């Protein structure tokens, strides 16, 4: 049988397949919010009911007061089989299905009659019975079907029920339909697009609006115009009210009392302003918060013990607001504005007043803008400025407020909102349609006002088009130099980042020559720091380390000693300077301060970059686990803010960190996540190539590793990722030496040494000495002295991994010189360090070298947690508990075939041949070390 999965519901489809394959019969309840796909899954079951007679019905709200109405519709096709039932059962069943009801004394008789009727109808062919919206129809039907579902184990009858979110039926397996993940949401949206695939920002925004609800996503896709699909027109903030989901919510709300609907709308509009405000607004409306009880019973809201009310699902709030009439919304906003009387609620009060306004209101707009600017960066401030722009009757002032609103939205991580606001700010003479986000540059991008161009450039830099961001940012610097020098310098700083990200370092000279990059006597500490850093980076990229080094160190000092409060942007600039002159501890402190300050100030958009720099400094300090944690946090924040370019950098760093630890599967997974989206020459591409080259090095493919790293840049031309190549030089030298290409290694090492010579870093000098040792004649006194020098230079308190690598290479060199006794001490220390760092592949290499040197040691085996995927580990633990494959399949909602497949891989990875051996492996039984012949 061919299985066709429904988008995002693969697990549920497999469970339905397993249910249908279960002899003789079984039952399942699927429950979820409106639009979750319950009816679609029932249709899927009908299509795959091979050889079964299908009986189907649905609970109808209009028939909820008619006892057994749903049961009558379900059983009507097989009522003829009632003649085979005992007389009393036949009589009771006929009375119930014809509307005469069923007395309490006959309830058990009726349920046994239904069970017997289904059993007789299934004699010819098995039955599939489905009841949609069980909780919406009449309660007696639900009670009867629950009774039947618990007694199907000896009948060829499969019963599949659906109900609203949170519904349960005692004794029946149930599965909640969760929201679709982002991948499935995007796939569903792309499938609804009538033309070419829509831009990534459009998919991201629509996926967020749809909140993982399949019907919401379908309704959104069907309602979009071609311009909205292309990102040229504003996108909706909620699913359409005339779609299937809107009609379902409207019907649900219509069944609630009027007071409940009134308080429910107040709750939807009173986002996060506390139960006191809601209670005051409800009293002013002539009701009370307690009127929400029917909505709580319907699963729309929840009330905690403190009286705070929250919507059970994010989409429910949006649909309650969207389905209300404009007059009802206006009245509710005025009630909430009057209820927000506390001093700290000024912004909320003005926002509600503005939401109720009809037409331009300059005074209210000015009040909104003033409150928003005084309150710092927040979602509320962005909304206030956006509304202020709508209420402003002066076009120039309205445009200024829209740009300010977009800046606030971008800063707090609302990228889609920022894009929508910027689209409404075209420069004079711009064409009507703007390019989609990430598309080619248009005259709109070069905003003569400067601020919109600066923001557009920043967003392009972070969200996936750094090469397109450069001309926009340089134009913004031109426009802002005469009016806002601080903003112009920010534009130059971001332009420099775009240059380095895209691998066009030779263009950094344009940044450094810009008038805004010049220092002035009146500059404050922050301006001096940024101009000094830009000049230092420019000199470093030209290879003028003697000039660039002092400038960069000055920037680090300014960042660390300034008595004036610096912004997170200035601190990240100082951290960049610290990394370029290899003062890793200072760079880490600066980046860490930038992370904390950005969090405290609500500047979410800056966190991915600050975390990237913190991770890089932690890498050089040898804190690989901390670096991975920083990258994972940065990746999560970048993705949530649609900063795709930043996300790819974090993926690249995670790949490098995994590769350095010889974790092949993890490293390749991160490289695969980058995929083909990163263009050749970009920083994510270079990091991915670095990770792959390290894995090549681990496996002894020296030529491949050397080729990858050499191709990253062409020193002297300013093209390619020179900085990444310099960072990877120790690996490049090791690979080139292993491939028999000493000239290639010396060329790379010469560039590395020029940089190291401009720093005061003992760890970098240790790496340089190690590289020179590898290039020295094998077995020579020169090589030995260089290795010893490298070990003296390695700091004792940091970078223990690199020290262990040096000891491994030195021990190998001594063993090959037939000095096994001298080699063992270094190899033992290397092995011990690798084991403590959980760098198992390197520990195995050290063990192999020790045995080759005559030491009797075993190969340290990896624990199961590091060898198995999460799903494989869960299956293995269930096996250890004594579960059969079929029991595991039921508990994990998998097919038995899938469990068999995973278990074979578990046996292979752990090197066991039976369930008993598997149990011992998980219990921590001491491993039997393999031996070398």
What features would you describe in this structure?
The structure is a single chain. The chain has 933 residues and is mainly alpha-helical. Among the domains are: 10-176, Rossmann fold, CATH 3.40.50.300; 182-240; 864-923, Winged helix-like DNA-binding domain superfamily/Winged helix DNA-binding domain (Arc Repressor Mutant, subunit A). It contains 48 helices and nine strands. It has a five-stranded parallel β-sheet with strand order 2-3-4-1-5, with helices on both faces. It has a two-stranded antiparallel ribbon with strand order 6-7. Helix 6 links the parallel strand 3 (127-132) and strand 4 (157-164). Helix 28 runs parallel beside helix 30 (607-620), helix 30 (607-620) packs antiparallel against helix 31 (624-640) and helix 32 packs antiparallel against helix 33 (664-674).
Summarize the structure.
This protein is 62% helix and 4% strand. The protein is mainly alpha-helical and 933 residues long.
Uncertain spans: 428-448, 925-933
Instruction: Summarize the biggest pleated sheet.
Output: 5 strands, parallel
* Highest CATH level, the class of the domain at 10-176: Alpha Beta
Give me the secondary-structure category. Answer: mainly alpha
Mean pLDDT: 86
**How many E-type strands?**
9
Distance between the termini: 51 Å
């Amino acid at each position: 049988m061919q299985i066709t999965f429904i988008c995002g519901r693969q697990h549920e489809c497999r469970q339905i397949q397993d249910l249908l394959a279960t002899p003789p019969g079984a039952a399942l309840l699927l429950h979820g919010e409106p639009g979750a796909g319950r009816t679609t899954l029932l249709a899927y079951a009908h299509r795959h009911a091979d050889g079964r007679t299908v009986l189907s019905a649905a609970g109808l709200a209009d028939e909820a007061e008619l006892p057994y109405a749903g049961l009558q519709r379900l059983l009507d096709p097989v009522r003829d089989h009632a003649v085979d039932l005992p007389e009393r059962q036949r009589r009771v069943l006929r009375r119930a299905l014809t509307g005469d009801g069923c007395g309490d004394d006959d309830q058990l008789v009726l349920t046994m009659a239904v069970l017997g009727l289904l059993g007789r109808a299934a004699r010819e062919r098995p039955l599939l019975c489905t009841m949609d919206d069980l909780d919406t129809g009449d309660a007696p039907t639900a009670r009867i079907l629950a009774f039947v579902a618990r007694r199907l184990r000896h009948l060829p009858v499969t019963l599949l029920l659906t109900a609203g979110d949170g519904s349960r039926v005692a004794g029946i397996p149930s599965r909640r339909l969760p929201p679709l993940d982002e991948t499935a949401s995007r796939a569903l949206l792309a499938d609804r697009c009538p033309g070419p695939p829509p831009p990534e920002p459009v998919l991201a925004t629509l996926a967020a609006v749809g909140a993982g609800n399949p019907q919401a996503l379908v309704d959104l896709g069907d309602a979009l115009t071609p311009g909205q699909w292309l990102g040229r027109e504003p996108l909706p903030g909620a699913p359409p009210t005339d779609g299937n989901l809107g009609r379902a919510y409207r019907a649900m709300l219509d069944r609630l009392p009027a007071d409940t609907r009134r308080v429910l709308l107040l709750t939807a509009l009173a986002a996060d302003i506390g139960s006191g405000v809601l209670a005051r607004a409800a009293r002013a409306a002539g009701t009370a918060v307690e009127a929400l009880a029917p909505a709580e019973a319907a699963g729309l809201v929840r009330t905690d013990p403190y009286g705070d009310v929250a919507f059970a699902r994010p989409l429910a709030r949006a649909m309650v607001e969207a389905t209300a009439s404009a007059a009802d919304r206006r009245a509710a906003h005025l009630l909430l504005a009057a209820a927000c009387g506390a001093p700290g609620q000024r912004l909320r009060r003005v926002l509600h007043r503005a939401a109720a306004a009809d037409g331009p209101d300059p005074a209210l707009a000015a009040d909104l803008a003033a409150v928003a600017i005084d309150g710092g960066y927040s979602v509320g401030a962005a909304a206030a400025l956006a509304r202020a722009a709508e209420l402003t009757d002066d076009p120039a002032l309205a445009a200024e407020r829209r740009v300010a609103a977009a800046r606030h939205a971008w800063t707090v991580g609302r990228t889609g909102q920022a894009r929508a606001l910027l689209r409404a700010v075209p420069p004079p003479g711009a064409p009507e349609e703007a390019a989609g986000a990430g598309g080619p540059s248009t005259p709109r991008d070069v905003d003569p006002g400067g601020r919109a161009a600066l923001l557009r450039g920043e967003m392009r830099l972070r969200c996936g088009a750094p090469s397109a961001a450069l001309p926009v940012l340089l134009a913004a610097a031109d426009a802002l130099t005469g009016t806002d020098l601080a903003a112009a310098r920010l534009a130059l700083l971001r332009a420099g980042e775009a240059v380095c990200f895209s691998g066009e370092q030779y263009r950094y000279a344009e940044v450094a020559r810009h008038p805004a990059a010049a220092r002035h006597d009146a500059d404050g500490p922050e301006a001096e720091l940024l101009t000094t850093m830009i000049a230092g980076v420019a000199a470093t990229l030209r290879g003028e380390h003697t000039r660039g080094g002092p400038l960069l160190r000055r920037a680090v000092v300014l960042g660390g000693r300034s008595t004036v409060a610096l912004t997170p942007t200035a601190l990240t600039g100082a951290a960049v300077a610290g990394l370029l002159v290899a003062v890793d501890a200072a760079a880490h402190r600066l980046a860490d301060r930038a992370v904390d300050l950005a969090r405290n100030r609500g500047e979410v958009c800056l966190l991915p970059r600050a975390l990237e720099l913190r991770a890089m400094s932690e890498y050089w300090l040898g804190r690989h686990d901390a670096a991975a944690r920083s990258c994972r946090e940065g990746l999560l924040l970048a993705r949530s803010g649609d900063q795709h370019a930043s996300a790819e950098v974090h993926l690249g760093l995670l790949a490098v960190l995994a590769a350095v630890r010889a974790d092949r599967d993890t490293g390749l997974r991160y490289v695969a996540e980058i995929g083909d989206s990163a263009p050749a020459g970009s920083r994510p591409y270079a990091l991915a190539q670095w990770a792959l080259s390290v894995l090549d090095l681990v496996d002894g493919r020296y030529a491949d590793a050397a080729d990858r790293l050499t191709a990253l840049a062409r020193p002297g031309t300013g093209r390619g990722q020179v900085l990444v190549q310099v960072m990877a030089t120790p690996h490049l030298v090791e690979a080139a030496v292993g491939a028999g290409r000493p000239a290639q290694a010396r060329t790379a090492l010469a560039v590395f040494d020029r940089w190291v010579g401009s720093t005061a870093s003992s760890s970098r000098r240790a790496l340089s000495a190690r590289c020179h040792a590898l290039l020295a004649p094998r077995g020579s006194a020169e090589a030995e002295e260089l290795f010893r020098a490298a070990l003296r230079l390695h700091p004792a308190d940091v970078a223990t991994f690199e020290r262990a690598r040096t000891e491994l290479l030195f021990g190998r060199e001594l063993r090959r010189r037939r000095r096994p006794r001298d080699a063992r001490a270094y190899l033992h220390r290397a092995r011990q360090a690798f084991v403590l760092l959980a760098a198992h592949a390197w520990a195995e290499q050290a063990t192999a070298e020790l045995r080759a040197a005559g030491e009797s040691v075993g190969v340290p085996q990896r624990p199961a947690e590091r060898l198995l995927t999460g799903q494989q580990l869960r299956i293995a633990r269930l096996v250890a508990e004594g579960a059969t494959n079929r029991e595991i399949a039921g508990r994990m909602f998998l097919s038995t075939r899938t469990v068999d497949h995973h278990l074979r891989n578990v046996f292979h990875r752990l090197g066991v041949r039976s369930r008993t051996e598997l149990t011992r492996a998980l219990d921590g039984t001491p491993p039997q070390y393999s031996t070398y012949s």
